[in-house]
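testing teh design pipeline on a random one, pls ignore if ur not involved
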Protein backbone atom coordinates (compact mmCIF):
# COMPACT_ATOMS: atom_id res chain seq x y z
CA UNK A 1 0.00 0.00 0.00
CA UNK A 2 1.41 3.41 -0.88
CA UNK A 3 2.01 6.26 1.52
CA UNK A 4 0.07 6.56 4.76
CA UNK A 5 -0.70 10.11 3.69
CA UNK A 6 -3.52 8.82 1.48
CA UNK A 7 -6.99 9.28 2.90
CA UNK A 8 -8.88 6.23 4.08
CA UNK A 9 -11.35 6.77 1.26
CA UNK A 10 -8.51 6.67 -1.30
CA UNK A 11 -7.12 3.49 0.25
CA UNK A 12 -10.56 1.87 0.17
CA UNK A 13 -10.98 2.88 -3.48
CA UNK A 14 -7.62 1.25 -4.30
CA UNK A 15 -8.70 -1.94 -2.51
CA UNK A 16 -12.00 -1.92 -4.41
CA UNK A 17 -10.18 -1.50 -7.71
CA UNK A 18 -7.79 -4.34 -6.89
CA UNK A 19 -10.68 -6.63 -5.93
CA UNK A 20 -12.52 -5.82 -9.17
CA UNK A 21 -9.45 -6.43 -11.33
CA UNK A 22 -8.36 -9.61 -9.59
CA UNK A 23 -11.18 -11.84 -8.35
CA UNK A 24 -8.67 -14.31 -6.90
CA UNK A 25 -7.07 -11.65 -4.70
CA UNK A 26 -7.60 -12.29 -0.98
CA UNK A 27 -7.20 -9.54 1.56
CA UNK A 28 -5.89 -11.03 4.77
CA UNK A 29 -6.06 -7.90 6.91
CA UNK A 30 -7.68 -4.54 6.44
CA UNK A 31 -7.64 -3.65 10.12
CA UNK A 32 -4.76 -1.23 9.61
CA UNK A 33 -7.31 1.04 7.91
CA UNK A 34 -9.30 1.32 11.13
CA UNK A 35 -8.39 4.68 12.56
CA UNK A 36 -10.02 7.84 13.86
CA UNK A 37 -10.42 9.20 10.31
CA UNK A 38 -12.41 6.15 9.21
CA UNK A 39 -14.60 6.23 12.31
CA UNK A 40 -15.37 9.90 11.74
CA UNK A 41 -16.14 9.32 8.05
CA UNK A 42 -18.56 6.54 8.98
CA UNK A 43 -20.04 8.60 11.77
CA UNK A 44 -20.86 11.57 9.52
CA UNK A 45 -22.62 9.24 7.09
CA UNK A 46 -25.08 8.16 9.80
CA UNK A 47 -28.52 9.65 9.44
CA UNK A 48 -29.69 11.74 12.40
CA UNK A 49 -33.18 10.29 12.28
CA UNK A 50 -32.10 6.67 12.82
CA UNK A 51 -32.61 4.76 16.03
CA UNK A 52 -29.72 4.02 18.33
CA UNK A 53 -27.86 0.76 17.89
CA UNK A 54 -28.07 -2.40 19.93
CA UNK A 55 -25.91 -0.70 22.58
CA UNK A 56 -28.56 2.07 22.80
CA UNK A 57 -25.94 4.76 22.12
CA UNK A 58 -27.35 7.66 20.11
CA UNK A 59 -25.43 9.51 17.41
CA UNK A 60 -25.05 12.51 19.74
CA UNK A 61 -23.67 10.35 22.56
CA UNK A 62 -21.27 8.61 20.20
CA UNK A 63 -20.03 11.98 18.88
CA UNK A 64 -19.24 13.15 22.40
CA UNK A 65 -17.41 9.91 23.15
CA UNK A 66 -15.56 9.74 19.83
CA UNK A 67 -13.77 12.94 20.72
CA UNK A 68 -12.12 11.25 23.67
CA UNK A 69 -9.09 9.11 22.99
CA UNK A 70 -10.27 6.43 25.43
CA UNK A 71 -13.52 5.88 23.50
CA UNK A 72 -11.57 5.68 20.25
CA UNK A 73 -9.20 3.09 21.70
CA UNK A 74 -12.16 1.19 23.17
CA UNK A 75 -13.95 1.15 19.82
CA UNK A 76 -10.88 -0.21 18.03
CA UNK A 77 -10.33 -2.77 20.79
CA UNK A 78 -13.91 -3.97 20.32
CA UNK A 79 -13.25 -4.49 16.60
CA UNK A 80 -10.06 -6.40 17.35
CA UNK A 81 -11.82 -8.81 19.72
CA UNK A 82 -14.70 -9.60 17.35
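output:
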Amino acid sequence: MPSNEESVETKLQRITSKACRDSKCRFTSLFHLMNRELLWECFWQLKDSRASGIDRVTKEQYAANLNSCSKYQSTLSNYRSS
